Amino acid sequence: MIAQRSPFAERSAVPSYANRVERSSIRLASSALFALVAVASSATSHGQSLPDDREIDERIGVIRSALEREAAPSARWRWGWTATYGALALGNMTRALVAHALNTPDTAAGWIAAIGSTAGALNMLIVPPRGQYAAAEFRAVLRRPNTSHLQVMREGEELFRKLAQNQDFNSSVLSVALRTVIPIAMGFLLEYGYGLSIAAVLNAGGGIIVGQITIRTSPTAAIEAWQRYAQRYPDARGGPLSRWPSATSPLGAVHTLAIAPYPGGISVAGTF
């Protein structure tokens, strides 16, 4: 028995193949169109987001001026407080040695205060404020070969923003808390470890006062300078700072902490 091929099969196969070719062509054309639209949109948005050469040069000038202004105040603050903490450490060591020679109980208070002062001096030496070296780092970027002005501007913005963040942290309530907890801990050590109530109050109170003055004399100009820059140039790297709560309340009332003798211990009070 011989199988016969239906003529309808041949006619139906031709449209099926043609339909496949047509669908493939449509998909290919659609993909090409979408790709062209995506590239065009990307190029358009990219072109809009880039400042022109005049604005780039202007922004580089603003960044450089802001960083240069912070170098001298930051250096004075760092070395001034390094010397202050160093002098306090030396004075407290002398106090401890004299108390030891006279066999008085103030020896422990002198050594504990000396440890705190030495820690303050080492902190200034090991962790310098960013403002002291930010301008020098930016000058190195400016001298670097084969660097576009746009890249120089972006790296300058990063240095500028990090400087503002550093100053913001140094003047925040967290910094206040850190420079308050340590003297209080030393005061409790003197009170409950050695029974020296008066020395505990003097050491803790003195440490808190010095710490707060350190914070309130720290440079902060770069914070507002960066905020103005980020508002003026919305595409600035990182945008405006999300600031820490400041050591000064919005109404201008300064946060304070007081420490005083209390029967059987120490009384601590503050406004926050």
Based on the model shown, name its key terms.
single chain, 272 residues, mainly alpha, 8 helices, 2 strands, disordered C terminus
Secondary-structure blueprint:
Layout: H1 7-49, H2 53-101, H3 106-126, H4 131-143, H5 149-170, H6 173-194, H7 197-216, H8 221-232, E1 256-262, E2 265-271
Antiparallel strand pairs: 1-2
Helix pairs in contact: 2-3, 2-4, 2-5, 2-8, 3-6, 3-7, 4-5, 5-8, 6-7
Q: Mind summarizing the main beta sheet?
A: 2 strands, antiparallel
Instruction: Give the strand content.
Output: 5-15%
CA-based shape: elongated
Q: Residue share in helices?
A: over 70%
| Total beta strand runs | 2
Low-pLDDT sequence parts = 8-15, 32-48, 248-272
Ends apart, CA distance between termini: 104 Å
- Supply the number of helical segments: 8
What is the ordering of alpha helices and beta strands?
Answer: HHHHHHHHEE
Given the helix and strand composition, which structural class is it?
mainly alpha
Radius of gyration: 34 Å
The averaged pLDDT comes out at 80
Q: Widest sheet: strand order?
A: 1-2
Task: Please give a structural write-up.
The protein is mainly alpha-helical. It has a domain at 51-171 and 218-241. It is 74% helix and 5% strand. It has 8 helices and 2 strands; from the N terminus they run ααααααααββ. It has a two-stranded antiparallel sheet. A hairpin with a 2-residue loop joins β1 (256-262) and β2 (265-271). α3 (106-126) packs parallel to α7 (197-216) and α4 packs antiparallel against α5. The longest helix is centred in the first third of the chain and has 49 residues, at 53-101.
